[in-house]
Structures are given as structure tokens and as C-alpha cells.
Amino acid sequence: MVLTTVVDVFYTVLFPGSGRGPLRRPLSRLVHGAFGLTRGLPRRWRRRILAYAGPTHVAATLLAWFAMLLIGWAAIYRPALGDGIVAAQGSTVRSWGTAFYFSGYTLTTLGLGDVVAASPAYRALTVIEAAMGFMTFTLVISYFLTVYSTLTGRNAFALSLHQRSGGTGRGVDIVRALWQEGPAGAAIQLAEMATEMRRLVQTHTSYPVLRSFHDECEYDALPRILQTCWETAALLRTTVLVPAERPELAGSSPREIAASAGELCTRVVRAPIERGPLPSQRERWLADHARAREELLAAGVPVRDDAGEEYVDARAGWEPSVAMLAHHLLYEWDTPAPS
């Protein structure tokens, strides 16, 4: 049990991107399955309950590590009670309670001293346990501080997208805002979006626990972030007729945004995603594109006349991915996840 915990702490804290860990993966599936039972609840209640998924995942991990270390070391000490480990005064009670007590205060480095190691071997073991407890708690605190700091960064990016789109979360509104910003401002914003998307890929690969965190604000949802960025990139690449004086709109940033979104979906879902629109979706997407085109024209953004089919092809690549990601992460989504 002690070795299992050490290995799990190693993979979770020091090598988080490996995806391994004898405790991490079963705990993740357990928490995910428990919160998956909320699928039949009303939307408002489900959103409130899912807000506790991330903190519950963190708490379950910490409790599992502490319990495994406590029980494992108690099992090591139990046979030595009254011999290698004795009470400082009076007779030694040879029970599991005494073993847990000695293991607990050694692990937490309290060192009360009413039960002590009497033999050199068990004195060495208590030093090892105390050092293990100190290092484990230090690593865990550093790890989860990083997780919450990263989560704050993700939410800040989501808020920036929400504000840039005027509170709608639509890519067409971000494209209009980019056009109004002018070349310099648009170039900076697109570069920031590309950078934040690359950061999302790396952080959600390195810290899988981030996927468990939901927020009651809809725009904070990871699938919503990806949808907004993907739609923005798709409109810039297929619909906007980029003039010579606005080269930033046709630069590498939109391609990088779309590529990062696709990479994140692939790494999180880890399952084949069927692409391509159904006939009903095709008509809906063409209608969506026509409305977006009209809105862009009204804002003075030059657009192509023959971009409908290209937009549908691009959307066929990202909408099923976002829907599958939302289903995988327990989010409610307007578009049904592909089977």
C-alpha cells in the first residue's frame, strides 16, 4: 500500500502527463461515474452539483493517499508493538488502534512521543515515514496550487472570449470585434487566442484533474471555449474576404487555434469521432452561415459569396468533436453527441 501510494504520487505530481497511476485512474473513473448520475436531473440542479466534481476529485485523491499511507505503515508497525515499538510509560497496547495512532502522528510529523520506536530498525522506519509524509504533503500542496492557478487562467480566457463576443459566445461576434479593432489590435488578440489554446492543450494533458472542474457560468465550460475559438477560426478561414491591408486575419493564428482545439479534443476524448454532417445538420449549418454572413456584411466586413460549402466542411470537422467532448465531460450540449 505504501509503494502503491508512492508510485501514484510520483505519476500524478511529478509525471502528470503520463496518464498513469495505480490510484489516479480508478479514482477518476469513480468520481466521473458518480457525477455522471446527474444526467437525468434538471439543468439548474445538475449544473450546481457538477460544480463540486473538481473539488471532490481533489479531495478524494488526497484522502486516498493519506488513507493508503496511514494503513500501510500501520500494517508495518502492528507486528512490532510491545517489542520494536513501545509505550513511553506503562505497558504497550498491542492493537490496530495503537498502530494507526503511531502511524498517523509519524506521518504528519507531530511526534507526540507517548509511543516510540525502541529498535534501530523501527527508528529508521519512523524517520522514513516522517520524511515521506513531509515530502508528500509538500508535493501535493504545490501540485494542487498549480492546478487551481491553471484553472483560474482557463476561466480568465473564457471570460475574455465572453466579453469580446459581447456576451454571446459566438465566433461571428468575435470576428466583427477583430475587424473593428484594426490590424494591430486584431493581430494581438488572435495571437493571444492561439497562445491560450496551446496552453489549454498542454495544461489539460499535464493535469487531467482540470477536466473535472465545472462552473455554474456556462461560458466557463471547456467545450464552450473550444466552440467559440473554432467557429472564429472557421469564419476567418472560409468566409472573410481578407483585404491586403488586413493580413493578420489570414495569418497563422487562425490555423493554430483550430489545430490546438482539435488536438485537445483528441487527447481528452481518446476515441474515434465520426465527422461529417447529417442532411438536417447541413441545412442548418448553411442557414447559420447565411446569417453570419449577413451580420458580417452589416458590420462592414468583406465576405466571400461562395463560402457556404467550405464553412460546412470546416464545421463538420469541429462540431462533432465539441459535442463528443461535452458528452465525455458531462456537460449539457444543444447538439447531440455522436454515437
UniProtKB/TrEMBL annotation:
Record keyword Hydrolase present: no
Transmembrane regions: 49-76, 96-117, 124-145
InterPro entries: K_chnl_dom (IPR013099)
Tree of life domain: Bacteria
Pfam families: Ion_trans_2 (PF07885)
Keywords: Membrane, Transmembrane, Transmembrane helix
UniProt xrefs under SUPFAM superfamilies: Voltage-gated potassium channels
Name of this protein: Potassium channel domain-containing protein
Species this chain originates from: Nocardioides panacihumi
Taxonomic placement: Bacteria, Bacillati, Actinomycetota, Actinomycetes, Propionibacteriales
